Amino acid sequence: MSTRTIVLAALFAALTAVGAQFAVPNPLLSVPITLQTLFVLITGMVLGPRTGAVSLVVYLVMGLLNLPVFAGFTGGFAVLAGRSGGYIIGFIPAAFIVGLIAGRGKKVSAGRSIMATLVGTLVIHLFGVPWFYMVTKVPVPGILVGSLPYLPGDLFKAVVAAYAGREIRRLAPLKGVPGIEA
Asked: What is the pLDDT of residues 125-175, one digit of tens each?
């Protein structure tokens, strides 16, 4: 991995940590609504599958090392073992899949970028909802509580990420980043 790639992966891990702090508490579900997913999707769009996934692994490891990178300036294993853990773990495959679908090159079509971010959002929910249900044992199906309340915001973030990711790819020189050809 080049120095440039390492710096970009660290930068996007830091942006995801910043996005986690823009949180709207959700007292009913205890899983805050954050901008993390926006940055996860942008990470996959901009860095591609491998570097995007590595960036989110870095983010996860920072949290496991008890650095305050998760929502509410929290960190540690307890956060991952809690209600939000599945969603956070799902960030890694989501970034990989977004990068895979978005493909290589500076240009990606609007349709392809939206499809990539929507599939990435679905991946996050596929990891998060079963985990949420397993941890909470809520008496209603997990999808009703762990997914549906978040979908409107997540769909909006997916569209914003698709646009932002396309623009960053178009404007930024990403030559030398594995998976991206400038």
From this structure: 999 999 988 888 876 766 777 788 888 999 999 999 999 999 998 887 666
φ and ψ at residue 146, rounded to 5 degrees: -95, -5
Distances (CA, A) of 36 to 59, 91, 93, 131: 11, 9, 14, 18
Domain ranges for the chain: 3-171
At residue 67, φ and ψ (nearest 5 deg) are: -75, 145
* Class of domain 3-171 as given by CATH: mainly alpha
Question: Which tokens go with 76?
Answer: 């540690």
CB 34 within 8 A of CB 47: no
Task: Read off the pTM.
Answer: 0.91
